């Protein structure tokens, strides 16, 4: 039970936590070692039935202290998953909340009651229910997962990307949907930016792990906008300094949300740093040059390119050459010069595929010319 509590506790930590990064680097070794240890312990118990007598698991107050630690780990995990559930309403998180609370209860019952009593039987019943709830949550997550590869294949028709397996979990899809509901402009924007970024990354020979990081981060890079008040996000006019500062916090908000739902370091860097600039004048962290991860530098170009070449309610899409001129002018200031050179070359060779099938429909019509200036500044 304590071992289970430790693993559930670790799963509740943000993916940028030092413990999680350390475990992730050694995950294969840890899994193999853990399975081997369990097998050896079971073999030892079968060969030497009395070996458990040498393990002081029933010695007071040690067993009470272990039980308290186990209960606290379960309750901490339940709290973290409850906060996540409030944010994205994903069934797996609800299952873990209830399962963790029930497991905490069973741990305490196991230590404080005698065998064959009513409470002892209650322990087994509650344990079975908690295990069932966790199993249902895992099945729900598995059934809600889907591959984004067909989407990218249909949109880009780039054979080199066909073998890239990108999984979209239910929680990730919920966040994508919430983002597009909050801001009509982002309808299709996330997908197009991810696709443009993938093509540029492939042209720059990034490995498959970085391609996956860029794809997953790109699909959800603007999720932090759901934390921005609608009156600011959709304001028909120029933003004030205070409003601009609120908008500029959306990468941080997205980062804070996604680090609790399984996004790893490079994926999180795409979400947090896609508005950083090569010369250090971007936001939110004022990173400069190579301090910005390469996937984030690539996505910065894709993000601006899509903003310029997409149809908006207040203007027609810019032609390719005009958009490329803006990208080239930003080389060395806004963008990584190497990424700009690769992107321009990709476009001029006619190899950049535009995902026409993902062109969004806009129902809201803005009449203010000032809105165009405000939007282009984004």
Outline of this structure?
Keywords: Hydrolase, Membrane, Transmembrane, Transmembrane helix. This protein has helices at residues 2-11, 18-25, 27-47, 62-88, 91-112, 118-144, 149-156, 170-182, 189-203, 208-219, 230-233, 241-247, 250-258, 265-273, 294-309, 320-329, 337-348, 369-376; strands at residues 146-147, 167-168.
What does it look like?
- The structure is a single chain.
- The chain has 378 residues and is an all-alpha fold.
- It folds into two domains: 2-144, no CATH class; 146-376, Hypothetical protein af1432 (Orthogonal Bundle).
- It contains 18 helices and two strands.
- Strands 1-2 form a two-stranded antiparallel ribbon.
- The model is unreliable at 147-165 and 357-378 (pLDDT under 50).
What are the salient characteristics of this protein?
single chain, 378 residues, mainly alpha, Hypothetical protein af1432, 2 domains, two-stranded antiparallel sheet, 2 strands, 63% helix, elongated, disordered C terminus, transmembrane, membrane
């Amino acid at each position: 039970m304590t071992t289970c509590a430790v693993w559930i506790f670790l799963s509740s930590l943000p993916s940028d936590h030092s413990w999680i990064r350390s475990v992730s680097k050694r995950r294969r070794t840890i899994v193999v070692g853990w399975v081997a240890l369990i097998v050896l312990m079971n073999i030892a118990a079968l060969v030497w039935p009395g070996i458990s007598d040498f393990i002081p698991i029933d010695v007071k107050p040690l067993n009470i202290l272990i039980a308290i630690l186990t209960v606290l780990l379960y309750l901490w995990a339940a709290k973290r998953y409850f906060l996540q559930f409030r944010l994205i309403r994903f069934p797996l998180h609800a299952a873990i909340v209830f399962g963790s609370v029930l497991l905490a209860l069973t741990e305490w019952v196991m230590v404080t009651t005698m065998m064959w009593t009513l409470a002892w039987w209650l322990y087994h019943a509650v344990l079975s229910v908690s295990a069932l709830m966790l199993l249902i949550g895992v099945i729900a997550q598995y059934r809600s997962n889907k591959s984004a590869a067909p989407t990218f294949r249909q949109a880009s028709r780039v054979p080199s990307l066909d073998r890239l397996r990108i999984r979209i979990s239910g929680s990730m899809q919920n966040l994508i949907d919430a983002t597009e509901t909050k801001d009509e402009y982002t309808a299709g924007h996330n997908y197009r930016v991810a696709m443009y970024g993938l093509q540029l990354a492939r042209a720059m020979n990034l490995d498959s792990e970085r391609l996956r990081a860029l794809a997953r981060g790109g699909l959800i890079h603007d999720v932090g906008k759901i934390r921005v008040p609608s009156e600011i996000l959709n304001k028909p006019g120029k933003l004030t300094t205070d409003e601009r500062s609120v908008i500029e916090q959306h990468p941080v908000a997205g980062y804070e949300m996604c680090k609790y739902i399984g996004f790893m370091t490079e994926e999180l860097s795409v979400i947090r740093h896609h508005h950083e600039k090569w010369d250090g004048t971007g936001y939110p962290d004022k990173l400069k040059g190579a301090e910005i991860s390469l996937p984030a530098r690539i996505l910065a170009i894709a993000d601006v390119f899509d903003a310029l070449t997409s149809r908006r309610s207040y203007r027609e899409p810019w032609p390719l050459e005009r958009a490329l001129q803006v990208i080239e002018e930003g080389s060395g200031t806004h963008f990584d010069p190497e990424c700009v050179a690769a992107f321009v070359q990709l476009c001029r060779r006619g190899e950049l595929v535009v995902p026409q099938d993902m062109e969004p429909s806009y129902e809201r019509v803005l009449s203010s010319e000032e809105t165009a200036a405000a939007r282009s500044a984004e």
